[in-house]
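Two folds, back to back.
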Amino acid sequence: MPSHLKITAIKPYPARVGIRNQFLVKVETDQGISGWGESGLTGREKAVAGAIEHYREFLIGQDAMQIGRIWQEMYRSQYFEGGRVLQAAISAIDIALHDIKGKALGVPVYQLLGGKQRNVIPTFASTGDSAGEGAIERAKELMAMGFDAIRFFPIGQDSRDIFEPRQSIATTARLLNRARAELGDEVVLGIDYHHRLSVAEAASFCNKLDKGVLDFLEEPIRDETPEAYESLRTMTDIPFAIGEEFASKWQFVPYIERGIHQFNRLDVCNVGGLTEAMKVAGWSEAHYVDLMPHNPLGPICTAATIHMAAAVPNFAWLETRSPERGLGFDNDDFFPVQPKLEGAVYPVSDAPGLGVEVNEDLLAKQNFSFWEAPHLRRNDGSVTNW
């Protein structure tokens, strides 16, 4: 059992897989054991690649087994610490180091996090790009596949990338009221508003819903100002699911300690990797906040999140994109061994490390292509949130 593994290379791979880019990072060691990580800052991969290059300069030669110490050095070794770009880079390296350590010790990553508390990981699925009544029919299909937690998306973004919040909340509320009536009371229903609303708009949306329609409301407004969420909290009793954009445990401080939200949309590829995610998980447990991890990327992100989900007590559902059509994120050519849904759950892999294999040769042949999220506007021409 190796006690010291010297880091010899850190290789970033920003590549198009499916409908958009994935940013994978490979960390190699002098004993032939390597690990894979993933960054979550989709659409700004070049910025993360630059940060990886800076970290690589002082990480080469360090002991890959000392994950906690390396995390602290990456975070604290600059005056301008933190931020989403640096934390996305730290996340990818941290996940790769956990993969290495698990392989070196011959154990799955969940053993490094305290051991396995569940054998399978419950998930929630989304209706995807289905709109209007089509979303209800898609939800019925998902229920037939075994999903008992389903997320909708708002109506209102048109082919010109115009989005009018007030029009959206009226039509979307009517859709959700019908969905609850048709799908029944036992299924968990939520919606991701992708922080497109103001406090007033979000409150109006909640007031247009029948009692008991939603089990969670995800990201209704932007998260920079916790006091805005506190204001919205006084206007509705619908549980909030937020936090996918948070890039450190410190961003979670007001939300966890003031009781603002009920579900943490923690993203291991943005928050600072598994090292930081486990700290947030413990903190959340102390305040009775459940984890509902953000998982919109590829199999590396999914696998890392599965291991974390297996090791924590306060877990609700893991986001899965697999039932959505035509995304291509979990391409078997790129990832010959990867997590696979069994019905509506992910089994927890007992393979050493993350339990994912990557076709590096194929990945290296992919040309990077810029991907940009939609730039939404309102009817008056002003810019609004995607």
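---
second:
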Amino acid sequence: MNLSTNQRKIYLMAVTLLVAAVALASTWSLWTKPAAQSAAPVVTPAPAPAAESAPPVADAAPVPGAEEEADAPAASKVSTIVYYQDGYGLLVPVMCRVPMQEGIAKATLGMMVQSVGNDMQAARLGLRTVLPENTTIDLDIHDGLARIDLSKEVLDMPDAAAESNMVNAIVQTLTEFESVDRVAFLIGGQKLDKLTHGTGVAGEFTRGDINLEAAEPTLARSDAQPVTLYFPADSGAVIVPVTRMVHSRADVNTAVMELAKGPANGDMLESVVPAGCGLIDVKVQDRVAKLNFTNEFVDLVQNSDGGRLALKALVLTCTQFDGIDAVEIYVDGRKYDAGELGVPSFMNVADSIVYDAIQTQSAMIFEE
């Protein structure tokens, strides 16, 4: 998109006025808060939500709406991990900031229910919510077991895939909390064996594989090992974790080799390494994974984001293993300057995704 000099000036003036208005509104909101509230302690973001202590989550404050979150000062927010889905139904965990409150697990699940505010937040990330509109949630956590009672709206899911995604997303979200290792479901206050389209909800659920790829016909599950791989979504905004069953031992060598093969379904996810690029070897020395690729690796910078998400996926795939704290890239045996390869605090952070999207759109507007 090309703009004339006058149009650019007008655009910059509009952006400046918008930023000033937002800053003024935020300042006014802080000035008008009661003194006791403005003095709330600062909460340090954490990669995973903190364990919930008494009182029980069932007595939590109401789930915050979009308006409440917008009005809350930054000092009174806490990080939590929300599971959304992309356009293909793949689950995508995102670290979000929510108002500090009792019952943060229930509040987190509330963000996954279809509504105007929640859907707008998900859409900003290029994602979708997983629970149907008007679903209400009761939740109690005791001795590691989260008992969740969902209203009967969940019986009206469109198909089995949507049901399965909802159940998996709830289990994954709740087991992000240190206080939860098992999840049990009630529907409308009743125990059910299955949902409308056959998805099982009986018994207790534990954290399992996420976005499990279909196994090869010749690969018996009992003979295979799961390994988690990270791929950029085709939207170019988020990283998607995928579980792949492999014949080899699930270590960093196997993970990088499988990552280099690319996603099983290239229509849903992007490859991490460029076409034609080969993996020469993987070495671990002094807690650093040293990845040696063929010369085609340099084509990574031709990606729309300069290869940023692909490099992030490489780092996440390697540093999930104990004993690996950093990653170095080599091309044909020579160290390659891939820029900052620090370990991310989390695979997807909502504020960073939105910021990157704004930067990308701005660059497109001013592109000659």
